[in-house]
Amino acid sequence: MDFEELIESISPEVYKNIQSAVELGKWPNGLKLTQEQREYSMQVLIAYDAAHKSHENRVGYIPLKKKKDLCDAGVTEGNGSMQENVEQPIKWQD
Questions:
Q1: What pTM, to 2 d.p., does this model score?
Q2: How far is CA 17 from the centre of its chain?
Q3: 46-65: b (≥16 Cβ within 10 Å) or e
Q4: For the segment 3-61, what is each residue's pLDDT rounded down to a tens digit?
Q5: How many whole angstroms separate alpha carbon 94 and alpha carbon 88?
């Protein structure tokens, strides 16, 4: 069985168990996840989400802020980069 077949064979219940194990650091039976198990489990979650969920519903999705939100937060655009409108200490060079 290759990785894609494995992802397709995962049921929603198994997905939730893997997700819970990664979040809690232990399997449903109480055994602690090893670092290797955590890494593989996270890969499985990401691959499952990519195959079965919309972009906005995937693990780790962070919505982009709208320009209005950035302006309200005191952030402006300048020279193609985002800059905060806060006081910055002056750095003197010798």
A1: 0.61
A2: 18
A3: ebbbeeeeeeeeeeeeeeee
A4: 888 889 999 999 999 999 999 999 999 999 999 999 999 999 999 998 888 888 887 78
A5: 19
- The tokens describing 38, both together, are 């955590």
Q: Give me the residue spans of the domains in the chain.
A: 3-57
3-state secondary structure the chain: CCHHHHHHHCCHHHHHHHHHHHHHCECCCCCECCHHHHHHHHHHHHHHHHHHCCHHHCCCCCCCCCHHHHHHCCEEEECCEEEECCCCCCCCCC
Beta strand pairing call for 75-78 and 81-84:
antiparallel
Of the chain, the end-to-end C-alpha distance in Å amounts to 64
Provide the strand spans (E) within the chain. Answer: 75-78, 81-84
